[in-house]
Design brief:
The complex is a heterodimer of chains A (469) and B (200).
Chain A (H helix, E strand, L loop, with lengths): L5 H8 L1 E4 L5 E4 L2 E4 L5 H10 L9 E4 L19 H17 L2 E3 L9 H8 L7 E4 L13 E4 L2 H10 L1 E4 L3 E8 L8 H12 L7 E6 L1 H4 L3 H9 L8 E3 L4 H7 L8 H11 L12 E6 L6 E3 L7 E3 L13 H14 L14 E4 L7 H11 L9 E4 L4 H9 L2 H8 L2 E2 L20 E4 L14 E4 L2 H10 L9
Parallel strand pairs in A: 3-4, 3-6, 4-5, 6-7, 9-10, 9-12, 10-11, 15-16, 15-18, 16-17, 18-19
Antiparallel strand pairs in A: 1-2, 2-8, 13-14
Chain B lengths: L5 E9 L6 H4 L19 H4 L22 E4 L11 H9 L3 E4 L4 H8 L4 E4 L2 H12 L5 E5 L4 E3 L5 E3 L4 H9 L3 H6 L2 H11 L6
Parallel strand pairs in B: 1-2, 2-3, 3-4
Antiparallel strand pairs in B: 1-5, 5-6, 6-7
Classes of the chains: A alpha/beta (469), B alpha/beta (200).
Bound molecules: iron/sulfur cluster.
Chain lengths: 469, 200
């Protein structure tokens, strides 16, 4: 095949059936499930007397609703009854249908998008789905990975396939040398700021170019994670030596001769030089400033040196109204400098930025300093393995000495389903991916930033330019 | 799934862009292990104060719109998470159809799987329907999926596009899994070959 993109290749390799009307059946290699979007799928299977077609291709881990403190008593001791029932229901469903389940007390437990790669469940060239929109994270490995709804979870369980129509190809070229302080999070925010939250609708994004090749696997996961915030079905990065290095010897990665065969195949997984994309943009990472969101949509991106926008200068009525509403919700004045915005909380965590590299970056900023009096700050590692490694490196001490809380892994205040949430009007510098109204707690105010920027804000009590810190 | 052919329903305006799934059903209601009952929580944080009392000016709290079955909204409706709780909550409230200039991908898919018809129309057409909806007073639109038309109160009809396969599934009330299982042989053959690969 020539002129084809990475997405075209993976798509083609999974096509079970293609109807004349363009509706296709795609084979699904890997399915991740968690406690919140799977119960109704299993209920559906039971009601229709269906089985799970290939139990070994699904892996379960509870994350959304799991407590991040006081876990010693195990699942039975979870205080919130509804959370406990969801987590127990996942365990029971997995036992009944023969699905591998990583329990809360297992060291490998973590956010599903952190655990999948750590286990080597995520690999290049595979199709991966999960009932969670940030499944796009796994595209960092050159896998076609996207979120699905609960009906589709049931469909995948029953048939190991998904009904799909092909998306279009969109290449995001990121050129230039990103300076040290520009992280994958800043690149992700820059992309969303540029194309908007609906800019990727109907597309699969492929990130390419020198600044992408320079990213670590952690950074690539951060970037692909936020593809969904640009409306895209998935994000993709062609696998390379870094990808193979990351996966080698992971528990579920192939071994011996199988590994060599896999790598030989994975090396073919890239867009052809003359591949045709339906849309392309180029971003220069060398000139990006550290970025912050000011509003209630991830596209509300602004430079750390910028000012909050003024609705009076916006002609488009729908945009102006949305901006006014966002400023009122966020409790901000038009034109105020971003660095003057004071914060109450800091959240370092989520499937966007809770991996070891993120924790290292934050720890480096705060080492030997203290969290500002007005701020309550917490770190929620992405998995038990990340937590353990951080503790081996002494990062927990750095955080605790500075006045951060050091939690157990889970989604936590990324979506505030468990007890970790903002109070009304509380303002948070967060390393997560969504700043929607109420996302981190009713009437809570979220600003999305990189881990280093969140850490610096924790120390000063307001946003600061990491370059001056 | 209930069959969807033609129906008349009261239309409600939600004149906002980027209505996200967190607004449609906030996460505290995702703790359920059932599909039903979420209608009470649809748009919860816009609809109710923290003490549970109603926010009077929210559209669905107004007498004219409490029985709405059709929602007209702004661009990029349903953006955000993949939670199917969003269409479940809309359906449980009584909505069978959402009309907007554009929809987020996963939400759009999820609607069809639950018997809700999402209709994307050019902004100018949405504007007309939005102004119909704002009249209140039990204003109804009638939707004919077979003919792919919406009839306004003034008798004007607006045509819309829908994928023929999905249209058929809605009209027949077909179950996706049942349809796919008819292709079991193809899946078996594909899988047998794929399982030979060292990396699968
Ligand atoms: S960390 Fe946040 S975005 Fe990621 S899976 Fe959990 S809730 Fe979703």
């Amino acid at each position: 095949m020539s002129h084809t993109t990475l997405y075209d290749k993976i798509w083609q390799a999974h096509l079970v059936d293609e109807q004349d009307d363009g509706n296709c059946l795609l084979y699904i290699d890997r399915h991740l499930i968690h406690e919140v979007t799977s119960p109704q799928a299993f209920e559906g299977l039971r009601m229709s007397g269906r089985q799970v077609r290939v139990p070994s291709k699904t892996l379960a881990v509870a994350d959304h609703n799991i407590p991040t403190t006081n876990r010693a008593g195990g699942v039975e001791a979870i205080e919130d009854e509804q959370s406990r029932i969801q987590i127990e229901t996942l365990e029971k469903n997995c036992a009944e249908f023969g699905i591998d389940h990583i329990g809360m007390m297992d060291l490998r437990q973590g956010i599903v998008h952190v655990t999948g790669p750590e286990e080597g469940f995520t690999m290049p060239g595979l199709t991966i789905v999960c009932g969670d929109s940030h499944t796009s994270t796994h595209g960092a490995f050159g896998a076609l990975a996207h979120g699905i709804g609960t009906s589709e979870v049931e469909h995948v369980l029953a048939t190991q396939t998904l009904a799909q129509r092909k998306a279009k190809n969109f290449r995001v070229n990121v050129v230039g040398d990103a300076p040290d302080y520009i992280t994958a999070k800043d690149i992700a925010l820059a992309v969303i700021g540029e194309i908007g939250t609906a800019g990727g609708t109907g597309y699969v994004l492929e990130y390419a170019g020198p600044a992408i090749e320079a990213l670590t696997m952690e950074g690539r996961m951060t970037l692909c994670n936020m593809s969904i915030e640009a409306g895209a079905r998935a994000g993709l990065i062609a696998p390379d030596e870094k990808t193979f290095e990351y996966l080698k010897d992971r528990p579920r990665a192939p071994k011996g001769a199988d590994w060599d065969a896999a790598v030989a195949y994975w090396q073919t997984l890239r867009s052809d030089p003359d591949a045709v994309f339906d849309r392309e943009i180029t971003i220069d990472a060398a000139n990006l400033p550290p970025l912050v969101t000011w509003g209630t949509s991830p596209q509300d991106v602004i430079s750390i040196n910028g000012r909050v926008p003024d609705p009076a200068t916006i002609d488009n009525e729908a945009r102006r109204k949305a901006t006014e509403r966002a400023l009122a919700y966020m409790g901000l004045e038009a034109n105020m400098p971003v660095q003057s915005i004071e914060i109450d909380r800091v959240f370092i965590g989520s499937c966007t930025n809770s991996r070891i590299e993120d924790l290292r970056a934050a720890a480096k900023v705060i080492e030997g300093k203290k969290v500002a009096d007005r701020v309550n700050a917490m770190v929620v590692p992405g998995s038990g393995l990340v937590k353990k490694q951080a503790e081996e490196e002494g990062l927990d001490k750095v955080f605790l000495d500075a006045g951060f809380e050091w939690r157990d892994p889970g989604c936590s205040m990324c979506l505030a389903m468990n007890a970790d949430k903002l109070s009304p009007q509380e303002r948070c510098a967060s390393t997560s991916n969504r700043n929607f109204e109420g996302r981190q707690g009713r009437e809570g105010r979220t600003h999305l930033v990189s881990p280093a920027m969140a850490a610096a804000a924790a120390i000063r009590g307001h946003f600061v330019d990491i370059r001056d810190f | 799934m209930e069959k969807f052919t033609t129906f008349e329903g009261i239309v409600a305006p939600l004149d906002m862009i980027n209505v996200d799934t967190d607004m449609i059903v906030p996460k505290q209601f995702l703790k359920t292990i059932k599909r039903s009952g979420l209608g009470a929580n649809v748009f919860d944080e816009m609809r109710f104060r923290p003490d549970g009392s109603e926010i009077e000016d929210f559209v669905l709290n107004q007498a004219d719109y409490r029985q709405s079955q059709i929602l007209v909204a702004g661009d990029n409706f349903g953006c955000g998470s993949s939670r199917e709780h969003a269409p479940w909550a809309l359906l449980d409230f009584g909505f069978r159809c959402v009309i907007a200039p554009s929809f987020a991908d996963i939400f759009f898919n999820n609607c069809f799987k639950n018997g809700i018809l999402p209709i994307a129309l050019p902004q100018a057409e949405v504007d007309k329907l939005m102004s119909d909806a704002k009249q209140g007073n039990g204003t109804v639109l009638s939707i004919n999926l077979e003919a792919q038309t919406i009839t306004r109160p003034n008798g004007e009809t607006i045509a819309f596009d829908v994928d023929p396969f999905r249209k058929n599934c809605l009209i027949e009330g077909l179950d996706d899994i049942g349809l796919t299982l008819k292709k079991s042989e193809k899946i078996d053959a594909f899988e047998a070959e794929r399982n030979q690969l060292a990396w699968c």
